[in-house]
Amino acid sequence: MKRYVIEREVPGFGANDDAGFCNAAKTSNAALSKLAPRVQWEHSYVVGNGTVCIYLAENETAIREHARLSGFPANKITEVVRMFDPTTAR
């Protein structure tokens, strides 16, 4: 599986309350269950006018299929080519 960063433009999404985020997660999970094991959602960050999501997927096509099924746009999809963190300096 490859790791992807997905930028989603969803104006006003950050104004959701806990129930709104719960419903969004349920919607995403329902789409993921139809695509399993081809796509996995790791986590998302709410930013400005939308979200930045981290997913594992077979390919970009699977990410786009999740976007179609869930109704959440995938405005920009970028494959992660490598990870590094503070421990890389050792």
Automatic annotation (TrEMBL):
Stored InterPro entries: SCO4226-like
Lineage: superkingdom: Bacteria
One Pfam family of this chain: SCO4226-like
Name of the protein this chain belongs to: DUF4242 domain-containing protein
